[in-house]
Automatic annotation (TrEMBL):
This is Histidine--tRNA ligase. GO terms for biological process: histidyl-tRNA aminoacylation. One of its GO terms (molecular function) is ATP binding. HAMAP family: His_tRNA_synth (MF_00127). Its EC number is 6.1.1.21.
Length: 420
């Protein structure tokens, strides 16, 4: 241990567990890459205003959870708390929407930062894989994204997750509902902060996790009863497409999510093995966001899946991913001369695309074989002075335990053959 530790609310990814994180990122992004989504990467920090406007002034993320800083040059920046606003900003800046190819479909993977109260599954640094489809209003696009997330979770072997679905209406019907909800909420027994929230963003009150608040919300007006015909038809089409694809979902009219920019389709993926931090991913349609950050009208939809919680979900379901062995061949030299020769063979193997590792540090046979075992290598190459004098190396199959002498000059080719 050094004098230092990882900052509060963060943790390090170290082998072997880190391999699962890589596999999860890969599994979530694979269906996107196969569906026309291109990779995008944006900076880890942005102008703080982008999030204030894009995520919403009244959200917890903006009011309480952003890591903000002032640079020496006087710029007000924030570590990114989420991906959508940045991705949309970048797409607009690069004029991707003007290439005549809508929707612009993008995926991303990276670190996000929120100054939250740390607990199991909730960290101050976490990682997400996300997808955004920008510039098109089409229920099939909403359905596509939900289906691809479902496919990703299933490909990982997850089963105990559920999809919650709702529609938040649009700029026609939501204001009418908002007013009805405000009238209802103003009569309830609520604390000062929640009262303020009624005036700024009343839908967020529905999201309140406290039991005494939830109890008072039983008779709150339902958004479903206020949806305009266009929103209703849109939502029915998303539901029908999901059903046709065999993707099960639950209608959840209380689902509003913590970000201001959502319109129409909203959804969340929850996992039943995670306790209170049960959301493994979520997203929805954000038709007004582009205009909120100074862009043209670009109706869009997207999601972000949390990598950390997906790994926790795998652990909760005791799913062991079938991770490929990282090392196929492990070389154990005995003596100076063998070190030079086997190091050459390892280099040759690696250039031929075979994963190979080497017992560094001039270790004895016993210790080196222990490392060979731990590496998971299928074969070990052992050579001492006598072998070299005879022009051979000992090739050991770690599964069968069989060992045979192979001419040194043929060792790499023989291994390539055996490993297919
Ligand atoms: P959100 O942007 O809040 O909808 O988050 C999308 C997903 O990111 C969530 O479903 C979580 O899986 C993950 N996530 C969000 N905040 C955190 C956090 N503080 N710690 C770990 N994962 C998080």
């Amino acid at each position: 241990m050094s004098t230092f530790q990882a900052p509060k609310g963060t943790y390090d990814l170290t082998p072997p567990r880190s391999a699962t994180f890589l596999a999860v990122r890969e599994a979530i992004s694979a269906p996107l890459r196969d569906s026309g989504y291109g990779y995008i990467e944006t900076p880890g920090f942005e102008n703080v205003e982008l999030f204030a406007r894009g995520v919403g002034e009244s959200t917890d993320i903006v009011t309480k959870e952003m890591y903000t800083l002032t640079t020496k040059g006087g710029d007000q920046l924030a570590l990114r708390p989420e991906g959508t606003a940045s991705v949309l900003r970048a797409a607009l800046e690069a004029n991707l929407h003007k290439a005549g190819n809508l929707p612009v479909k993008l995926w991303y993977s990276g670190s996000y930062y929120r100054y939250e109260r740390p607990q199991a599954g909730r960290y101050r640094h976490f990682s997400q894989v996300g997808a955004e489809a920008i510039g098109t209003e089409d229920p099939a696009l909403d359905a596509e994204l939900i289906i691809l997330a479902d496919q990703a979770y299933r490909s990982l072997g997850l089963r105990r997750f559920r999809i919650l679905l709702n529609s938040l209406g649009d700029k026609e019907c939501r204001p009418v509902y908002r007013e009805a909800l405000q009238t209802f909420l103003r009569d309830l027994d609520l604390d000062e902060e929640t009262r303020r929230r009624i005036e700024i963003n009343p839908l967020r009150v529905l999201d309140d996790k406290r039991a005494d608040v939830q109890k008072q919300l039983t008779d709150a007006p339902k958004l479903r009863d206020y949806l305009c015909d266009a929103c209703k038809a849109y939502h029915e089409e998303v539901r029908a497409l999901l059903t046709a694809a065999g993707v099960a979902f639950e209608d959840d009219e209380k689902l509003v999510r913590g970000l201001d920019y959502y319109t129409r389709t909203t959804f969340e993926f929850v996992h039943d093995g995670l306790g209170s931090q049960s959301a493994v991913g979520g997203g929805g349609r954000y038709d007004g966001l582009s205009e909120m950050i100074g862009g043209p009208e670009l109706p869009s939809v997207g999601w972000a899946l949390g990598v950390d919680r997906t790994v926790l979900a795998l652990e909760a379901e005791s799913v062991e991913l079938d991770l490929p062995a990282t090392t196929s061949v492990y070389a154990v030299p005995l003596g100076e001369e063998a070190r030079r020769v086997l190091f050459g063979v390892v280099t040759e193997l690696r250039r031929a695309g075979i994963a190979a590792d080497f017992a560094f540090g001039g270790r004895g046979l016993k210790g080196a074989m222990k490392s060979a075992n731990r590496s998971g290598a299928r074969y070990t190459l052992v050579a001492g002075e006598r072998d070299l004098a005879e022009g051979v190396v000992q090739l050991k199959d770690m599964e069968s335990g069989e060992q045979s002498a192979v001419p040194l000059a043929e060792a790499a080719a023989e291994l390539a053959k055996r490993l297919g």
